[in-house]
Amino acid sequence: xxxxxxxxxxxxxxxxxxxxxxxxxxxxxxxxxxxxxxxxxxxxxxxxxxxxxxxxxxxxxxxxxxxxxxxxxxxxxxxxxxxxxxxxxxxxxxxxxxxxxxxxxxxxxxxxxxxxxxxxxxxxxxxxxxxxxxxxxxxxxxxxxxxxxxxxxxxxxxxx
Length: 160
Hints:
This is Low molecular weight antigen MTB12-like C-terminal domain-containing protein. The chain is α+β, with helices and mostly antiparallel strands and 160 residues long. It has helices at residues 2-21, 47-59, 64-68, 79-87, 141-151, and strands spanning 95-106, 109-118, 124-133, 136-139. The protein contains five helices and four strands, in the order ααααββββα.
């Protein structure tokens, strides 16, 4: 029994250490704004807003309808961020994600780079596109499909 305790203690220390080493979020919903109310409605989205949206999608247990509201594919596309969250690829303590430039903006389309890292693997960079639909910036379905292919998830890309 003492040996099991030592193994558990070692794992716990490793998890706590990894959590401290992970980058912190650069943007989060405002303190008075719940995840249910999160929306990017600015004329041109900022990297911080896009980063907060990606974190909401892959690093939180937000309800499906909240995640669907952030995706061009809506309910059909929720399976992707749900699976990424369950696998824990890009959230503490095993990993992180961060949206960075370079960015492009053209009317109702905006692009930036999603950098995603998981422990023991190189950082993945995916050029992602967001589309402004009904006044809200949503992650484009083609970006989810690129992510599925890059990560190698067994999900058909049929939500475009």
